[in-house]
Amino acid sequence: MPIESTKSRGATRNAGPTRFNLKEHVVDPDWLDQVEALDGVPKRRTTVTIERAKSILTRNRSPDIGFDRSVNAYRGCEHGCIYCFARPTHAYHDLSPGVDFESRLFVKPDAAKLLHGALSRPGYECAPIAMGTNTDPYQPIEERWRVTRSLIELLLETRHPFTITTKSDRVLRDLDLLVPAAKLGIVSVAISVTSLDPAIARTLEPRAPATKKRLAAVKALNEAGVPTYVAIAPVVPQITDHELEHIVEAAVAAGARGAFYLPVRLPHEVAPLFRAWLDAHYPDRAAKVMATIQSMRGGRDNDPDFHRRMQGQGVWADLLRARFDKAAKRYGLGNMKIPLRRDLFVPPEGAQMRLL
Length: 356
Description:
Blueprint: H1 29-39, E1 47-50, E2 57-59, E3 69-71, E4 74-75, H2 99-103, E5 104-107, H3 111-120, E6 129-131, H4 142-145, H5 147-158, E7 162-166, H6 175-184, E8 187-192, H7 198-204, H8 211-223, E9 228-235, H9 244-253, E10 259-263, H10 270-281, H11 286-296, H12 308-311, H13 314-331
Parallel strand pairs: 1-5, 3-6, 6-7, 7-8, 8-9, 9-10
Antiparallel strand pairs: 2-3, 4-5
């Protein structure tokens, strides 16, 4: 519905998907002008559609990612982070990776049931399951649907290792589950901190919780015994890169077990959306931002090659790496990577109880 306002959203437009030979949605501009003149531009409301998925456990063989399986309770994310590399997945639904990604959400209420079936299969080999790799497991709709919580309940019951990546302090609502999981050594959490400047954060990730709330969550989780890290992800050159050292200092003050950073990535439809966002919010430096990004991505908006896509290449990438290492040393940032236990896993019970 292109006539709806994009105010308070991350993306500044809602262009149709450009892949899979799908056509863009086109409206009659004369009719659009009349609607705006007579009725104004209505605020876009978030809608949630139930998705009856057939499977929930996603596998990957990427050599530069520290997990080989993940679970995502939702499609789309209301946080609206303009840089989100998951945006292109909405094109599979013939929806825009732009504002649709932030407002046309999908929920998988049967996620725990599907995961129960996957963990019950004969021959299943236990390894950490990553949550929050595609869209945030603690975005606002989790408060109502509680799908993430149901997944954690199952993982705790079966003593299956898992990791959580989020940019929300809503993770604290499941502290009653995370603390016993931490005592078993089967969970770790990473909380994303992109900028300490509220004005920048409001444009980058307009509906995500404030940074101070996230840092407070880092502190609360670690004090409760849940190993929690800070993800400085992504670092956007010319916009947030000057904060790198300050975020490391804030992470240490919050008691983070460690931290890591990732330069911004712009795959597929994310690149044109990001360019439009720059033109709207930072027109004075848009060309400089993209030139720096391209210098780290081999002259392209995005470099999909394994390993290079995570750290970048060239002078700017080397500079970020040196600055992070120096800041970590200066502020005493630990890099304690705690291996999660796999030996405690007990397959879930099915209709027939276990004999032993």
